[in-house]
Amino acid sequence: RGVTWGLLPRPCHVLVLLNPQSGTGCALQLFRSLVEPMLAEADVAFTLFVTERPNHARELVQAGDLSQWDTVAVLAGDGLLYEVVNGLMERPDWQAAIKKPLCTLPGGSGNALAASINHYAGNTRAFKEELLTNCTYFLCKGLYAPMDLVSLSTASGKHLFSFLSFGWGFISDVDIASEKYRQLGNARFTVGTIQQLAGLKVYKGRLSYLPVETSSSPAHEGSWPEDPLLVPFDQPVPKHWTVVPEEEFISIFAIYQSHLGADFTMAPMAKLHDGSIHLFYLKAGVSRLGLIKLFLAMEKGTHLGLNCPHLHYVPVRAFRLEPFVSTGLMTVDGEPLACEPVQGQVHDQLCRIISG
Ligand code: ADP
Ligand code: MG
């Protein structure tokens, strides 16, 4: 299989989608003061599109003619890129459209993909303007690489594409509950974590997965709209899958990139396109102190080294989660999803992203 790295053409024209509400509300200002001068220096032409509401960007990339742009950049948080990925996959010509190189320029409160790409490039940890400068520099250089996507289906028939994560329980609840602290930027997650620790909950359900090591073939690029590794919800998972014996969890989290935030290295082993879903689950019974130790270690990605008996990690190609309740929320790439049975599989190298 050809790994499709590439370089943007010169001259180059970029469509910049910007959410003025993302993060601390400074995205437009950051574009003018930081991004625009760098693009000018590198002779990269741009068209700026400022979103007016949720799904505005999704509708644009779903129906618009994108042929005049060499790349679509998103200056916002992960939420707006999630809209773009799903909008592209909803097009009749999705097969070609999803190959348009994408670019993440961190301007939100959750910039996990930008932090991951910064890490893959070998850079030290960076926040805010420094992270944005690094990512804008990647755009100016114009090198792109393939990136895996995960297709997720729900029992009620929803179909979503995810580039970052799927979660239920503790970590997802932090993400959702801390939305109201958006003004704090990245610090919203610290405040949210402390708040959620106070009211620690147990989440009951059945988790099943297909480990990378027992799956015979990689999840082939372009197999979508088929999800060849999955079977319908009314059938049990295939025999060679693993069903987790425990059914009480604090958190279940599937992540496909290294970082969940600028200072949150959840899957240090992850790569942009490794054909893997890095599945973590934390079983009920862990003490609050144990949980705090794990979260502090996640800043540097050393949590697996703590050998906490409640924390499990396995790289998988597919998973199914069947919650025993139908209330509350799950998250996909940090965005809320009503709680219901969900299953997903990785699609190797389905899209492309500007990287270092
Ligand atoms: P943050 O990282 O701060 O959460 P995101 O870019 O992830 O920023 O955006 C958060 C949400 O805002 C997304 O669900 C997106 O759909 C929505 N959104 C996009 N444009 C706008 C807008 N102009 N006004 C309000 N919400 C928007
Ligand atoms: Mg967000």
Automatic annotation (TrEMBL):
- Keyword Heme present in the record's keywords: the answer is no
Give every DAGKc domain span: 9-156
- Is Glycoprotein a UniProt keyword of this protein? no
- Gene Ontology terms, MF aspect: ATP binding; sphingosine kinase activity
- According to its UniProt record, the EC number is 2.7.1.91
**Which locations, inside or outside the cell, does it occupy?**
Endomembrane system
Reading the lineage from the top rank, the first entry is: Eukaryota
* GO aspect biological process, one term: cellular response to growth factor stimulus
* Species for this entry: Chelydra serpentina
Sorted alphabetically, the keyword list is: ATP-binding, Kinase, Membrane, Nucleotide-binding, Transferase
Supply the name of the protein: sphingosine kinase
Q: Quote the cellular component terms of the Gene Ontology held in the record.
A: cytoplasm; endomembrane system; membrane
| PROSITE patterns in alphabetical order | DAGK
